[in-house]
Write a structure and sequence with these properties.
There is one protein chain. The chain has helices at residues 18-31, 54-63, 143-159, 188-195, 231-235, 246-253, 257-261, 271-275, 312-318, 341-348, 362-383; strands at residues 36-42, 45-51, 77-83, 94-95, 106-110, 115-119, 125-128, 133-137, 164-166, 169-173, 176-182, 201-205, 209-212, 219-221, 228-229, 267-268, 283-292, 301-306, 353-358. It is an alpha+beta fold. The longest helix is centred in the C-terminal third of the chain and has 22 residues, at 362-383. Residues 2-8 have low confidence and may be disordered.
């Protein structure tokens, strides 16, 4: 894992002392009591969000409902969400390089082992460090950014275990996980939600995943962020029809299919509301990787075994460099190459990889991929040590 220098237009700032960061964080926390807490189970990791806003708590509880818990475990990941006016810290921020064709939306201050990030449009401020995870500003208005921050910090914890960040969706049957990757617009979310029609398929992640190494094979972790789908996906999946009003459904159904798939309007697809409770979780064994290269033609879909070491262009579709909210104790820097091809190949190990080529066929490809997961799930169950029966008690009579 490496980091390279950023451009001269958007330089990496010099690091301020960690004591300055700690003093600012402690002062912010001391200024506002956070009596309301939301407890979560993120793939086995106890987490919590504390806030001073009942309305924010209610909004987050609704969105994160599949991950709520009510036990008394001490959270290993704790987010402080402070509803307030925009926070003014008197710091000199450095602009972060925007995506091509986009405006600057983030600026930051670098400290020795941490950073403070300011969103220029929403006026949200984020403290990013191993000890402090603070979101401050108009949180209720921008509650989705609180969710995003929670997900980034969860994935950051898994990267700390030697994991690599992937641009991918993910599903699982029992303990067998599948990661779906591909270039933008190839239908990762649409394929994932099509496969969810089978009741033994669970949703793991949309758009981001971390793969960690383990003795019994790599492990897959997802995020709580719901998939955002276009009308083409909704109209062609009966489980998603409830996302539209009757008027919208009639309108979109009348649009030619090719034009419908290019429609830019997006809808949040609640897994729980569309597919029922218990269908969303955050962890599974990684047992297969599928990379979509197909196109919207009348050709049949082809599922082709490939080796990533021989197809670096396919590996590039999976790679996601850490952004500004994944800090690794300040070791990685925004907009730099932290992960290498070798990191991914080493972490994936012997995991089977498939290229999904030819024409788009969600039903056909999904059926074959699910069958692969069912086989892998059976293998994982059979590989588990069997519990030994208790020896019979001997009578003294």
């Amino acid at each position: 894992m490496t980091s390279e220098n950023a451009t001269t237009e958007f330089p990496i700032p010099n690091a301020l002392t960690q004591d300055t960061f700690n003093r600012l964080a402690d002062g912010l926390l001391a200024s506002t009591p956070l009596p309301i807490r939301l407890d979560l189970d993120l793939g086995g990791l106890p987490a919590a969000i504390s806030t001073n806003s009942a309305a924010l708590h209610a909004k987050l509880a609704e969105y994160l409902h599949p991950f709520l818990r009510d036990d008394d475990h001490t959270p290993l990941l704790h987010i402080a969400a402070i509803e307030s006016e925009p926070v003014r810290l008197g710091l000199k921020y450095t602009q972060r390089r925007p995506d091509p064709g986009k405006k600057v939306k983030e600026e930051w201050v670098r400290f020795l082992y941490s950073r403070i990030v300011h969103k220029t449009k929403t006026e949200m401020t984020f403290f990013v460090s191993a000890k402090y995870n603070i979101v401050a500003g108009p949180c209720l208005e921008n509650w989705d950014q609180v969710v995003n921050y929670l997900n980034f910090r969860f994935l950051n914890a898994k990267i700390s275990l030697g994991g690599v960040l992937c641009h991918a969706s993910a599903l699982a049957v029992d303990e067998a996980g599948l990661m779906l990757a591909g270039l933008a617009g190839r239908g990762k979310s649409s394929l994932a939600l099509s496969m969810m029609r089978d009741e033994d398929v669970d949703f793991i992640s949309n758009d981001r995943a971390v793969i960690t190494p383990a003795e019994d094979g790599p492990f897959l972790f997802g995020s709580t962020k719901l998939p955002r789908v276009n009308p083409g996906t909704i109209v062609n999946n009966e489980h998603l029809h409830k996302l539209l009003t009757p008027e919208e459904f009639i309108q979109f159904k009348s649009i030619p299919e090719k034009q419908l798939w290019d429609f830019e309007h997006k809808y949040d697809a609640s897994i729980e509301k569309c597919f029922g409770p218990g269908r969303q979780r955050l962890a599974a064994h990684l047992t297969a990787i599928a990379i979509l290269t197909w196109n919207r033609t009348n050709d049949p879909a082809q599922i082709l075994p490939v080796k990533l070491e021989d197809n670096p262009h396919l590996l590039d579709a999976l790679i996601k460099q850490p952004g500004i909210f994944i800090d690794q104790d300040g070791q990685n820097l925004p907009d730099t190459d932290f992960f290498t091809h070798e990191d991914y190949l080493r972490t994936f190990g012997d995991t089977p990889v498939y290229e999904i080529a030819g024409g788009v066929d969600f039903e056909g490809a999904g059926k074959e991929l699910r069958e692969e997961l069912v086989i892998k799930a059976k293998e994982l169950r059979e590989a588990k040590p069997q519990a030994q029966p208790e020896p019979a008690a001997h009578s003294d009579e």
